[in-house]
Amino acid sequence: MVLATDSLPFPDEEYLCAALTTSDLPANHEVGDDWIAGRHPDKTSYCSPWVVGTVKHRAIANPQGKITTEFTEHMIDRCEDFLRGT
To answer: Which domain of life is it from (predicted)?
Structure first.
């Protein structure tokens, strides 16, 4: 899930992303109704806001969907909490 693009040093070349998974781990957040497009009808998706990394634009081959801005902002806040240890 893309968390940031324009604020990165190379905004046209890479994205800061958090992992999406089908694993229901205690600290994961269910995407649920926050899918705008791309929700799999038979699987539940979760975001792991502590699993973050930079993904190069050229590595994006087949985007899976779109998630609400509100959910994305919440995951950014949770990612920051992990980074700050709060």
So the answer is: Archaea
Closest C-alpha among 7, 23, 10 to residue 76: 7
Fold of the 2-84 domain: SH3 type barrels. (2.30.30)
Each residue of 25-76: pLDDT tens digit? 999 999 999 999 999 989 999 999 999 999 999 998 888 899 999 999 999 9
Among 55, 44, 50, which residue's Cα sits nearest to residue 76?
50
Q: Which two tokens stand for residue 51?
A: 């699993």
